[in-house]
């Protein structure tokens, strides 16, 4: 069985995870531990009661319920991180959308699943994740479509997609990646496999954390387009730090948003004992060239690490989470 959790009923998240920070107060590098826990179990009332491999199965999801008569063989993914989740369970989608300004199949997935390289190269683009090309989706004749409800008119999208094939809607955003992984696994008849993967991952993360006597806190920073953001406890990268038991800078202890926008004058909000920063497109100078960059204590200590933006900040799937864990193990271990 998957590990259980206690979820704060008071948590409220923005759909896109991108609120603005108005504070100009100096950042505190003080250690802050949160009682917040990322949701780790199947969403209440969702999924099916069917065992792995049993079909037909009726899956209750975030836009209703869908019946799959047989194990799906041709799956189209609409939302970021769902290709990752499928590949983690041994399935290659036939069609996919892409994240904003990102590759349809990010490099970290090609590297993680080299045996699937030919099939991944053959995945068909079906447009934008907020406005998929319905004709392209239909032309693939899928027997399952996967979407999420975050940041879009989910009801309208679901109606359009479900007219093409059975469609299952997960919740979306990096906060819910674990429960979404389980729901997606249920839809393809591999829920128990997803539970086993998640249990193994949780154990590895916790064991690593127990072996760190005093790792210090970890800070997460991303730059994309005209936005610079720090990421809080209730974020994708933050969830991996939480799984390890790593403290966060006080400036990133928030749980009411996934991230907070900062100005170049507020760069000290990214300071900490260890900093993991990503830049969309890979041009690190968009951050390292900022006037205040060299004044950060973490930079002066040589503990600011450039990371893969797709893995840490854009794709919210289990293989990306393990990639974050691996990076933290190499850096802190």
Automatic annotation (TrEMBL):
Superkingdom of origin organism:
Bacteria
Q: Where is the composition biased (Low complexity)?
A: 21-30
For the region Disordered, what residue ranges are annotated? 19-56
- Record bears the keyword Signal: yes
Instruction: Say where the protein is mainly found.
Output: other
Q: Where in the cell is it found?
A: Cell envelope
- Residues of the Fe/B12 periplasmic-binding domain: 74-333
> What's in the keyword line of the UniProt record?
Signal, Transport
What does the sequence similarity comment in the record state about its family?
Belongs to the bacterial solute-binding protein 8 family.
Name of the protein: Iron-siderophore ABC transporter substrate-binding protein
Per the UniProt record, the source organism is: Kineosporia mesophila
């Amino acid at each position: 069985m998957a590990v259980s959790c206690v979820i704060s009923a008071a948590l409220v998240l923005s759909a896109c995870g991108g609120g603005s920070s108005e504070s100009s107060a100096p950042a505190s590098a003080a250690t802050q531990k949160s009682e917040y826990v990322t949701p780790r179990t199947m969403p209440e009332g969702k999924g099916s009661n069917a065992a792995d491999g049993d079909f037909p199965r009726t899956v209750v999801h975030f836009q209703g319920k869908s019946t799959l008569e047989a194990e799906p063989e041709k799956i189209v993914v609409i939302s970021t991180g769902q290709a990752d989740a499928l590949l983690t369970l041994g399935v290659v989608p036939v069609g996919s959308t892409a994240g904003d300004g990102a590759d349809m199949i990010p490099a970290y997935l090609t590297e993680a699943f080299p045996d699937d390289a030919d099939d991944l190269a053959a995945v068909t683009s079906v447009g934008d994740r907020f406005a998929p090309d319905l004709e392209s989706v239909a032309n693939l004749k899928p027997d399952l479509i996967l979407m999420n409800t975050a940041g879009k008119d989910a009801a309208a999208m679901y109606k359009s997609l479900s007219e093409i094939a059975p469609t299952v809607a997960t919740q979306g955003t990096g906060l819910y990646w674990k429960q979404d992984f389980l729901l997606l696994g249920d839809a393809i008849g591999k829920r128990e496999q997803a539970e086993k993967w998640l249990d193994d991952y949780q154990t590895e993360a916790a064991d690593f954390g127990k072996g760190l006597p005093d790792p210090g806190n970890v800070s997460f920073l991303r730059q994309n387009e005209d936005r610079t953001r720090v990421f809080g406890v209730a974020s994708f990268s933050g969830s991996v730090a939480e799984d390890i038991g790593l403290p966060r800078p006080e400036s990133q202890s928030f749980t009411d948003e996934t991230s907070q926008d900062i100005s170049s004058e507020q760069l000290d909000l990214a300071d900490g004992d260890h900093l993991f920063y990503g830049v969309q497109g890979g041009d690190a100078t968009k951050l390292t060239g900022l006037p205040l960059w060299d004044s950060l204590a973490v930079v002066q200590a040589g503990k600011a690490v450039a990371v893969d933006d797709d893995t840490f900040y854009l794709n919210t799937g289990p293989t990306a989470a393990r990639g974050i864990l691996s990076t933290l193990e190499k850096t802190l271990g």
